[in-house]
Amino acid sequence: MSKKIIVIFIVNLILALELNAQSIAIGPQLGYHKSEDAEGSMLLGAMGRIYLAHSFAVEAAINYRSEDYENGAVKTKMYPVMVSGLLYFFPLLYGTVGAGWYNTKIDYSSTLNSLGLKDQTKSEFGYHLGLGAEFGLGNLILTGDIRYVFLNLKLDRLPGVKELKNNFYIITVGVLFEL
Fold first, then answer.
1. How far apart (Å, rounded) are the C-alpha atoms in residues 115 and 20?
2. Where do the H-state alpha helices sit in the chain?
3. N or C: lower Cβ tally within 10 Å for the chain?
């Protein structure tokens, strides 16, 4: 129930912001992510930005990412949905802060399943901070940023292994098309 309320709130916020927007841009996003205790890998997604002023924008993004812990004993697939505020320091540079909903499927190896660890799906909220830059070329905007995500997704403790840490950083590049 609370997820539906949050989704309705976000949709209404985006619609309200769109009415006052100076411009709107959407496009694909590609990146690299690395959790503290997992192997790094690529991520793929889409983003949209609503520019409310020369110094402020709101961004929404959805991505797909996967990662392996302990040499493949634990595999996660995540669909993060993030909403961010962007504050422009100079025409090209911005700082960002935001929150996200992280829907994660956790798959344990068959060996760990036999020890009682069951595959599961979790949804958690997290927040992020970052820095980025963008460069406009007519109706095309090239973006790039780095963000650190504070997630603290609780994974089951593996036998003989310390608690796995999954806060992560992401480095992304994107192309936005102004509408």
1. 55
2. 2-20, 110-114
3. N
For residues 167 and 102, give the distance between their C-alpha atoms in angstroms, rounded to a whole number. 12
Question: Is the Cβ–Cβ distance between 34 and 66 less than 8 Å?
Answer: no
Contacts of 59 (CB under 8 A, 6+ apart): 47, 48, 49, 50, 82, 83, 84, 85, 86, 96, 98
* Spatial CA neighbour of 168 closest among 10, 15, 3, 39: 39
Of the CA atoms within 13 Å of residue 131, those in its CB half-sphere come to 3
3-state secondary structure (DSSP) of residue 113: helix
Instruction: Please state, in angstroms and rounded to a whole number, the distance separating the CA atoms of residues 110 and 115.
Output: 9
Q: Highest mean pLDDT range out of 93-97, 155-159, 166-170?
A: 93-97
Encoded amino acid at 91, one letter = P
pLDDT at 19: 47
CATH T-level assignment (fold) for domain 2-178: Porin (2.40.160)
Q: Please report the DSSP string for 115-145 in residue order.
A: TTPPPEEEEEEEEEEEEEEEEEETTEEEEEE
Domain ranges of the chain: 2-178
CA angle 138, 131, 3 (to 5 degrees): 95
Q: Give the C-alpha separation, 158 to 146, whole Å.
A: 30
